[in-house]
Amino acid sequence: MKVKSMAERNERVEAALAYAAKGLAVIPVFGIKNGKCACGNPDCEHPGKHPMTGNGVKSATTDEQKIRYWFEKCPGANIGIATGRISGIWVLDIDGLKGYQSYDRLTDRLDDPGDSWIAETGGGGAHRYYRYPENVECVRSKTALVENIDIRGDGGYVIAPPSDHISGNPYTWAVDPEMNELDYCVEAWDRAFRKAGVFEQSSAAGPEPEEGEKVDRIPRGMRNDTLFKMATGLRSKGYTGTEIQACLSAANRLRCDPPISEREVAHIAQSAVKYDRGKGVADGIKEDPKTYKLSDIDLNSMEGPSWIWENRLSTGLALLAGAPKIGKS
Prior knowledge:
Blueprint: H1 6-21, E1 26-29, E2 32-33, E3 36-37, H2 64-73, E4 78-82, E5 89-94, H3 96-110, E6 117-120, E7 126-131, E8 136-139, E9 142-146, E10 149-152, E11 157-160, E12 172-175, H4 187-196, E13 199-201, E14 218-219, H5 223-236, H6 241-255, E15 256-257, H7 262-273, E16 307-309, E17 313-314
Parallel strand pairs: 14-15
Antiparallel strand pairs: 1-4, 2-3, 4-11, 5-7, 5-10, 6-7, 6-12, 8-13, 9-10, 16-17
Helix pairs in contact: 1-2, 5-6, 5-7, 6-7
């Protein structure tokens, strides 16, 4: 039996923590041992793919302490990433050659789905990750959307690199989350999934801009800061967290280019609520100290120093310097 090295064991822990740091909730999944599922059932129907926790995917978390405990206690565990609103993602699961053939037919009809993190599964398939869509109550996990293609949404999960596949090959990143920003699927795919009921639309979707109405866009790199300032401004006027989140969601959808996830919007709103009602973001920040030029100071009008030690040490800020061992103390 091959024993995993310390480096290999640490790799699982660090990978799981890196996913959690991106807001992806993770769970430990039975790995592969001696060519079989580590669960111990020789007839396991889902080797290397079912959760080790009693509550399954409901146990998924971003808590560092719990993740360390899981993966240090079970260093051979595979890493599962919960899909859906909890992680702000959904995944297009392409299973093998037939899955790629179905995917090609979809792209012929709907065009390429857009920028994505892409993991190769080790079994000849792929997982394409996308940001959770806007104004959607849930993304339905759906098996066999078309032949050999599944949707992993709310209540689902996928196995993530560097986990082991039953084929003996590891899961690997073809497009790495550390180097690429996740995006929404393109409009044609979004529209098709809403029509098919995969993206169950929210009844609370905000209004579209009026025709001819000018909307100032908030570019990438300014989105979080702008929304936070907006949130604290609303908080200073006495708005509740629910009201602030609703306003931010509308601004995010209409102005942010591209919009951030609803989970990020909720976090910004929650952060703003921590400010005392009636105070904005700047109220707790001291003004920069006033600066003067030498020409601004009338030395003749200044009072003389107040001495603690006559002609040696005055009140206020002072520096007492001298060679060692001459009695400064």
